[in-house]
Amino acid sequence: MPPSARRLAAAAAALFVLPSLVLLAGFGGAVLWDVILAVQFLSAAACAAPLFFPSHDRFRVACAAAGAIIACLWTPLLIIGFAATAISGVLPWVGAYLAIVLAAVAALIGAFQRAKGPGVGRPAVVVGWTAAALAVADWLYVAGPALLA
Question: pLDDT (tens digit, 9 = 90+) per residue, 66-97?
Fold first, then answer.
């Protein structure tokens, strides 16, 4: 199995750790942020699970399971978040979380494809890394001013 598959799964886990550190540093205490923090750590653990499977078949199953777990955890939160935008104007935050979720799933799909073999899944890898870079940039753009204030 190519090492890039493992690196993509690690990147998916890291995408959830970065916002968790930001929330711990500046926004801890509120119940909503604590729930989001718990979901982020669960998502990071799900994305890190494929790293512990040495065979490519089990790695691919773990990647698919991690994607399903992320979808199950984040869909209700994002629906509530989009509903809350009408009330409180938190659209940039919801958009940043949506970017992270989509990037993590794209990275897991890339890892799933790369686990098939050395010459397989290169377009999925490009999409995964590009989405991850854009999600980190979006998160820093949204959370940066709040942390510096």
Answer: 999 999 998 888 888 777 776 776 677 788 88
What pLDDT is attached to residue 30?
66
pTM for the model: 0.85
C-alpha dihedral, 131 to 133 to 139 to 141, nearest 10°? -120
Those residues whose C-beta lies under 8 Å from the C-beta of residue 139, and which sit 6 or more positions away, are 18, 19, 22, 96, 99, 100
CB atoms near residue 46 (< 10 Å): 24
| Pair of tokens at residue 66 | 């991690």
Nearest to 58 by CA among 5, 21, 96, 102: 5
Using an 8 Å Cβ cutoff, are 124 and 113 in contact? Answer: yes
CA distance 95 to 28: 20
